[in-house]
Amino acid sequence: MDDVMKKFAVITTDTDWATEKQVENLIYFFETRNIPVTIFTDKEYDAIKRRTGLSDCAACKSQRENVGPHVHLVSMKTGSNEEKNMLQHAYLAMDKDMRCMFSTHAFVDSHYISKEMHELGFKIDRNLCTWLQPQLQPIMHESGLWRVPVWWEDDVEMRRLANGQSTMQMVDTIEPGLKVLNVHPQHLDVMRDRLDEIIGWLRSSGHEFVYLRSIVGLKADDTA
Hints:
Largest sheet: 10 strands, mixed
Shape: globular
CATH superfamily: Glycoside hydrolase/deacetylase
Strand content: 15-25%
CATH class: Alpha Beta
Number of domains: 1
Helix content: 25-40%
Order of helices and strands: EHEHHEHEHEEEEHEHEH
């Protein structure tokens, strides 16, 4: 494993029909902890617009590059024109600076999705969910996409707790490897203390929080 990946952590969020206030609260939560957030969104939010801006200034462009579509698909098994149109709509609905990376609702995945999104110009998918898997790093998918796997997700932990399953103590599981944490705005109130606990553990073990796209070294010109 690349040594560079051993101490990187990334926060991503899928907006998933969240309210405007929930999205605003999530952005504020991480900003006050000096943690960059990579946003995957299924619609326009004023809270995101205020963050990314509408001008072509360098700062606004940089923020837009850290936002991508969160695509809702039941499945894509055949690669039909209808399915391709759904993906193309997600592409065209986004600002041109927001066409680098994507995620899908419930991690729905197929060869056709990866192939079509790469052909549309996307470079990264965050479309694989693991559970505290050590030694993670970006994967080069055969489609040409960089796949960046999730290490921890809030609703997975919530489901495990509801089912009486152990969530393990993070302090015992912080092993080398990329740490991508995916958080939903709707769950912030419930998971606030747990997130602060995990953030503290990661920082105490020397992890640096960065944007998702920086993990694979993409710059603005890479999506032109």
